């Protein structure tokens, strides 16, 4: 199947700005089952943007937490038996409560066990959003994956796979890269904001997935939610790049700029096609 190319219609800059206002007003609780590399930075990203993180990734509490959270992030970056069991529980809790959940299939394709975990979770209850780099999205559709957790494909090359997954699961698929591509299987939104420094710090994509879980808690249209997260994150990255001397100061500045970003600046600065 070829990728759809319907131009942006309902996803407009004003809607993305309104989504950021909704995130700040709602301050949703976002449960994160994420990897050990990025946990603290992910929590800080959510706080800076205006959401409320809680990193509950044990099988004893994950289901109950997903029942009360506004959104759930499941990121398979450093899976262990315990956290994999917790992911199953969290997805069950999300299914019971109708809580939107986001899958970040870190390293899918490159490593077999986590690829099976991702497929198993997808088979239990459809996520609101699958967010990954192009190689990870291709891997979920039968591809071979990237170089470890690094993507080696361009986002546009993953759009046939993203479209197929979106149709199969009834979810949004967000493919990150120089130009981020977001689709619900019918509509495609491209966001061309961002900074190359995002590829020089670990966990940018992981933090973006957490933001998507936050936006799905406050925005009903999941295409808008995933696009708003992308716009907010990449616009903050552009401002952070201006303040940074390199990856270290960039990562710190990105938190500052997420906190400072105003909804009007989202509407003014986002580059959609
Ligand atoms: N070449 C690039 N130029 C500018 N921005 C980029 C580039 N590649 C990725 N990005 C941005 O970096 C962020 C993370 O995307 P990326 O594709 O690197 O995710 P990822 O590989 O899943 O990251 P990680 O696994 O390290 O968390 C996105 O906001 C995306 O817009
Ligand atoms: C570096 C790394 N290894 C496993 S998860 C992770 C964070 C970026 O995906
Ligand atoms: Mg990733």
UniProtKB/TrEMBL annotation:
Residues annotated for ATP binding in this entry: 131, 176
Assigned EC number: 2.7.1.50
Molecular-function GO terms, alphabetical: hydroxyethylthiazole kinase activity
Pathway info: Cofactor biosynthesis; thiamine diphosphate biosynthesis; 4-methyl-5-(2-phosphoethyl)-thiazole from 5-(2-hydroxyethyl)-4-methylthiazole: step 1/1
Binding of substrate, residues: 55, 203
Catalytic activity from the UniProt record: 5-(2-hydroxyethyl)-4-methylthiazole + ATP = 4-methyl-5-(2-phosphooxyethyl)-thiazole + ADP + H(+)
InterPro entries referenced in this protein's UniProt entry, alphabetically: Hyethyz_kinase, Ribokinase-like
Name of the top EC class for this enzyme: transferase
Key words, A-Z: ATP-binding, Kinase, Magnesium, Metal-binding, Nucleotide-binding, Thiamine biosynthesis, Transferase
Task performed by this protein: Catalyzes the phosphorylation of the hydroxyl group of 4-methyl-5-beta-hydroxyethylthiazole (THZ).
Protein name, as recorded: Hydroxyethylthiazole kinase
UniProt gene name: thiM
């Amino acid at each position: 199947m070829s990728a759809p190319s319907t131009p942006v219609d309902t996803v407009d800059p004003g809607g993305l700005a309104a989504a950021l206002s909704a995130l700040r007003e709602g301050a949703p609780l976002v449960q994160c089952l994420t990897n050990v590399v990025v946990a603290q930075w992910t929590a800080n990203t959510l706080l800076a943007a205006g959401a409320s993180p809680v990193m509950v990734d044990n099988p004893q509490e994950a289901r109950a937490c997903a029942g009360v959270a506004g959104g759930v992030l499941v990121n398979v970056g450093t899976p262990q038996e315990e956290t994999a069991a917790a992911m199953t529980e969290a997805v069950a809790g999300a299914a019971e409560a109708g809580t939107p959940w986001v899958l970040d299939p870190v390293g899918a394709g490159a490593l077999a066990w986590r690829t099976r975990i991702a497929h198993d979770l997808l088979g239990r209850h459809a996520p609101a959003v699958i967010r990954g780099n192009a190689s990870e999205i291709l891997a979920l559709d039968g591809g071979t994956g990237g170089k470890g957790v690094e993507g080696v494909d361009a986002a546009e090359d993953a759009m046939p796979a993203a479209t197929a997954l979106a149709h199969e699961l009834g979810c949004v698929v967000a493919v990150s890269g120089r130009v981020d591509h977001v689709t619900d299987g019918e509509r495609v939104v491209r966001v061309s904001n961002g900074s190359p420094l995002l590829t020089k710090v670990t966990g940018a994509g992981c933090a973006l997935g957490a933001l998507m879980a936050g936006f799905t808690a406050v925005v009903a249209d999941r295409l808008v939610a995933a696009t708003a997260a992308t716009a907010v994150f990449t616009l903050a990255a552009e401002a952070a790049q201006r303040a940074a001397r390199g990856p270290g100061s960039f990562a710190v500045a990105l938190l500052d700029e997420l906190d400072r970003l105003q909804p009007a600046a989202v509407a003014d600065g986002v580059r959609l096609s």
